[in-house]
Amino acid sequence: MGPIEVTVLYADEAMLVLDKAAGLLSVPGRGEDKQDCLSTRVQRLYADALVVHRLDMATSGVMVMARNPAVQRSLNDAFASRAVTKRYVAVVDGIPAAPVEAWALIDLPIIVDWPNRPRRVIDHQLGKPSVTRWRVLSHNERDQTTRVELEPVTGRSHQLRVHMQAVGHSIVGDALYGSPLAHATADRLLLHACTLELIHPVTGQAMGFVSRAHF
């Protein structure tokens, strides 16, 4: 068994806030080769840690885990009721026409692309309501890429990746949704959960956590 590599941003008796590395599963997958994941590593350090939400394997950044079932239920309810604010930073392909720093809305329903799972697609008839706020932070004219900030209002799987592809600016390094060139431009998906804001499930205190993107 190798070293337990876990970055803990915050820990108390109720919850843990962690910084997940890109390329690491959030929870175990199917098969012996998919058992190494953030939740398993954390549970080797904090045996009472319980999963609350997930990040895609290719996505890095802030995640929270509960330390007892009551807190897990409370945090699950907070996520379900959109009382938790999550923001991401990403680098996308191309130069969007949107003005810098102005928030825009992507409101496009998403459904699983069953013949091509785990891909998701936009489907206006059958898709589940999916909303993302986004804004341009800066342009890189040389690389023809743009750094953006993303805030998922809903929490569909692959939502940010599907929505950015839908508006013509797929996330750089995205093997599922990016163009071959955008995928080949980076050795990882350039998507990072940079901030998470919530109300502490026990104390009621407003809390915010930040993780810097390494791209």
How would you characterize this protein structure?
The structure is a single chain. With 215 residues, this protein is an alpha+beta fold. The chain folds into two domains: 7-82, Pseudouridine synthase (2-Layer Sandwich); 87-191, Pseudouridine synthase, CATH 3.30.2350.10. Helix content is 15%, strand content 33%. It has four helices and twelve strands; from the N terminus they run ββαββαββββββααββ. It has helices at residues 38-45, 69-80, 159-166, 180-184; strands at residues 7-11, 15-20, 50-51, 60-66, 85-93, 104-107, 110-112, 120-122, 131-140, 145-152, 191-199, 206-210. Strands 1, 2, 3, 4, 5, 6, 9, 10, 11 and 12 form a ten-stranded mixed sheet that branches. It is globular. The chain starts with 6 loop residues before the first strand and ends in a 5-residue tail after the last strand. The mean pLDDT is 95.
